[in-house]
Amino acid sequence: MGNKILQQIALLIAALSISVAGPALAQSERQVAQDSSPYVYEVETLQNGGGTASPLELDTPMGLMESFMAAGERGDWERASAALDLANVDRTANADSPQDLAAKLYDLLHRTVAIDWASLPDRPDAVDTTTTSKDPMAGAARRSIVIGYLEVDNRTVPIRIARVQAPGSEPLWVFSRQSVANVPQLYAIYGPSKFEEALPAPLRKQAFWTLAWWEVIALPLILLVAAFAAALTYFAINRWRHRLDEDTKLYGILQAVHLPATLLAFAGTFALVRTTFFRLSGPVKDLLDPLQLVLILAAIIGIALAVIDYLFDFATSRRTDKLEAAENNADRNFYTKMSAIRRIVTALLLLAGIGFLLVASNISNTLGFSIIASAGVIGLVLVFAARKVLGDIMSSVQIAFAQTARIGDAIYYCGQWCYVEKIGFTHLRLRTWDERRVIAPLGDFTSDSFENWTKQDPSLMMHVELELDNRADVDALREPFREFVQSDEDVIDPDDAVCEVISQNARAMTVRFMVRAEDPKKGWSMHCRLREHMLAAASRLDAAAGHEPAPAFLPREREVRMDAEG
C-alpha cells in the first residue's frame, strides 16, 4: 500500500516537471535557432565587380585575401574586383573603374600594409580559435576585420574587410564599401610617384622578396645621395668654424652641433629623396620608415641638447673664478639648480622623442611590435636597461636640488682637494688644485660621505703639523707664529690662531699650528707660507741652541756604531 502511494507521488512530480519545463525548452530551442543565424551586414544588393570571370573564394577572410592577392599577382583585375563592395564608389565618367580600384587596392596592400596572415581566420564566422579564454572576443563571431592602417591628414584610416549578405544569397567576405571608397585618396599618397610611373616596365617588375628591380637600384643611390649631403654639411660647418675665433659663442655652438647637424643632413636628405622620387614599398618601407624617423629625431634632439649644454658650460666656465669666490653662494646655488633643470629638460626631451616615435611611426602595426609588447617583454627589457641610467639621473637631480655638492664648491674627495666643475647624468667632473680632472661616479656622493668645504661657511681652518725634537721649547716657537698671524693678509681671524702639541713618541713630538683662512684657495697658499715660516724659525732656533745638551728643535737620528775588534 505504501509503495503504491510513493509511485503515485513520483508520477505527479514528473508530470509537473514536464509541464513547467516544456515552455522553457521550447523557448531555449528558439533562442538557439535565433543565435545560429549568420552574423553579417545585411545589404539590399551586393554591388561588386567580377563580371563573367570566375568568382573568388569569398567564404572566409583567409580565402578572400589569398584569392584577391593571387588575382592581383596575375594582373586579373576583372576577377579581383569581385572582392570590392562598390556601393560608395563614385560612378561618374572620370571615376576609377572597378578594375582600376582593384589594381590600386592591390598595390596599396603590396606596398604599404604588412598583412598578418596568421591572424586571418579560415572560418566563415571569423571566430579566432588561436586566442586565449581571457580575450573578451574569444569564441565570438565577427563581421568586420581590419587588415591594416594608413595615415591620411593626421588621422588613421583602416583598410577593412566585412561580411555582407544580400537577400536570398549566401554571406560573403569583401573589402568594405568605405575602404574601397578611400582607395583613390590613399593611392594618391602611398602609390607610386610620377618618377616611378615613368620608368620602363622591366624595371617595375618584381626582383626578389617584395622589391622591384628599380627599388634594388634606387636604395643604394638614395644612401649615396644622403651620404653626399652629410659630407657637404660636415665640411661646410668645419670650414665655417675655422673662420671664427675659438672664444666666440658661435664657434662653440657650431662645434657642439657639428655631428648632430651632419646626421640630420643625412637622415633629412634620405627622407626627402624617398618621399619625392622613390616610394619604396612592402617590408623595406616598414623597416626604413621607423629607422629614418629615429635618425631625424636623434639629430634634432642632439642639436637641441648640444646647444643647451654648450650655453650652460660657456656661462659656468666664464664665471669659474667668480663661482669659486667665497662670497658667491648665490651664483653657486643658481647654476647648480640650472644644471638640475637642464637634466630634467633633457630627460623630458628624450621621453617626448620616444613617445613621438612610437606614435608617429605606427610601429605597433608595421613590425608586429605589439605582439612582443603584449607579453611585457619590451617593458621588462627597457626597465632593466634603463634602471642604472634612471638611477643616475635621479641621483644627479637629488645632488643638485639638495645642493650637497654645488657647482663651484670646494670638496675633499678620495684624498684630493677639488672643485665641482660639472654635474652630469652619470658622473661629477671635479677639478683638482693642480688643474687635473677627476671623473667621480654619482653614487659616491649619494651613498658615501664626503667633505664639502664651502657648503655653509667658505672659511677654513688650515693647519700645519711639524715634527720637532722632544727637547724643543714650544714657547719659543709661539712668537714667530704670532708674527706670521699678525702680518699675513690671508689670515682672517688672528684670535683663532692656535699653536699646540698634539702627539709625542720616543723620536719626536708633533706641533700643530692652526690659522683660519677666507676660503680653501687662499687657505692653501697661506698654509704653504706658514709651513715655510715655521720651518725657518725652527731652523734658526736650532742653530742658535748650539750642541747638546742644549735644547734642540729639529729631530736628530742617533746612530750607534760598534767596532768589532779582531
UniProtKB/TrEMBL annotation:
Transmembrane segments: 211-237, 249-273, 293-312, 340-360, 366-386
Domain Mechanosensitive ion channel MscS: residue ranges: 389-455
Superkingdom of origin: Bacteria
Keyword NADP carried by entry: no
UniProt keywords, alphabetically: Membrane, Signal, Transmembrane, Transmembrane helix
Keyword Transmembrane helix: yes
Subcellular location per the Swiss-Prot or TrEMBL entry: Membrane
Signal peptide: 1-26
InterPro entries linked to this entry: LSM_dom_sf, MscS_beta-dom_sf, MscS_channel_2nd
Protein name from the UniProt record: Mechanosensitive ion channel family protein
Taxonomic source organism: Qipengyuania profundimaris
